[in-house]
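I am writing to request your help with a piece of structural work I have in hand. A protein sequence and the structure tokens that stand for its backbone fold form the material at issue. Please examine both parts with care and let me know of anything in them that strikes you as inconsistent. The record follows directly beneath this note.
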Amino acid sequence: MLKVYVPQLQRINPSLFEGLFYKIWPQYFNERLKDPKWSTVQGEFFYTAQTACTNVFTHLISEVIDAINTNRNFDLRDIIIDLSAIFDNYDCDDAVFEHFSSEDVWEAVYQWLEYYVNFLLSSNMLENYNKALFPIYNDLMNVKRTKNLVGFWYSTYDAECKLWEKEMIAYGIERDDFDELHRGYWPFNHYENGCHGDPYLWSFYFCNQTGVIYLEDTGVRIPNGADVTYCQLRKDRADVIYQDY
């Protein structure tokens, strides 16, 4: 695995998310909440904002990596990100608040999340993401070509866990980093995939006609009838990535 440090990618970290929160929190607080007592539960609003940012940016980076791996143009302006899990998973029923009931806090946080998510996914913000992340796409695409990489590894789940703590590193997949386990025409029978390799190792599909790869984790967009090979990263290579997490 080839570790690639991209300055623009490393700027996507908790400090960025914190800055976005405080960019709009004072105005939201003064216009929507108003009561100074809400400052005692600011942590609830901050936590959900960080969660939303983490989800949004891991999906944005996923689009960057997927565009590189499949040799397609990069454009985030029409991206659709499902953040319903953030609303579904927020729960403060067992919490005790000094000035508010848990129901009041839940309702206020829910309304805040709607406001914040609309801000994060507004057309203006998507345009900003597009401009900010294009240098990452360009740099990694150049590395892919000059180093003759198959593509880049990316796991949305692992990225969500990592972005809470530190910046990200790109992992280039070299020719000897994986095993080819099964070849056929898409779509595969998932049972056949299950009969090959280790279910705990990361896998992807290599298109023999175009030379591009499709990561299982980023959403499969393989054309029907394509000649593809099911591949898995070798365990020692996967361990290198896990050590960084």
Q: What stands out?
A: Residues 104 and 122 are 27 Å apart (CA to CA). The longest strand covers residues 178-185. Strands lie at 2-4, 151-153, 170-173, 178-185, 203-207, 213-215, 227-233. The chain has a mean pLDDT of 87.
